Amino acid sequence: MYLTIHDVAKRTGLTTYTLRYYAKEGLFDFVTRSSNKIGTRLFKESDLEFIYLIKCLKNAGLTIKEIKTFVDWTMAGDATISKRRAMFQERRTALQKQLAELQATLDVVDYKCWYYQVADDAGTCAVHDTLADDELPEKMRRVKHQLAAQHNFTAD
């Protein structure tokens, strides 16, 4: 049984526009086409796994050109295994760095939520001038000191 582009869109969460764009860029060269004049793409269930992988690669920050290279390597077979592995290792390293940066950003946002909650409860931001370091929750103390060290300012 074959799936239409609309079926694939529903199953993958990608729009038909995105799927057609990916097809135009050569990302679906592995998909069977009908023999009619139009050459309609006939997606199989097994094609969905690869489409999910393409979606993952896009979400991981690869460009269409980089994804096309990966698709080409995959279609070339086992001779490109080391290239594909290296690509995933590089992407994992980049994503780990992004995650660390996002965690640091989230820590600051958490700090500011805490900061303004305390200030709101007291009716003034000046309440923070009266708090000793040991009165701050450990995580908030750490973030406050990191902010001060990075920017050489008080963390208002």
Automatic annotation (TrEMBL):
GO terms for molecular function: DNA binding; DNA-binding transcription factor activity. It holds the Pfam family MerR_1. The keyword Nucleotide-binding does not apply. It comes from the Bacteria. Gene3D superfamilies: 1.10.1660.10. The keyword Coiled coil does not apply. Residues 1-73 form the HTH merR-type domain. SUPFAM superfamilies: Putative DNA-binding domain. InterPro entries: DNA-bd_dom_put_sf, MerR-type_HTH_dom, MerR_fam. Coiled coil: none annotated. Keywords: DNA-binding. CDD domains: HTH_YyaN. This is MerR family transcriptional regulator. It comes from Lactiplantibacillus paraplantarum. The gene is merR_1.
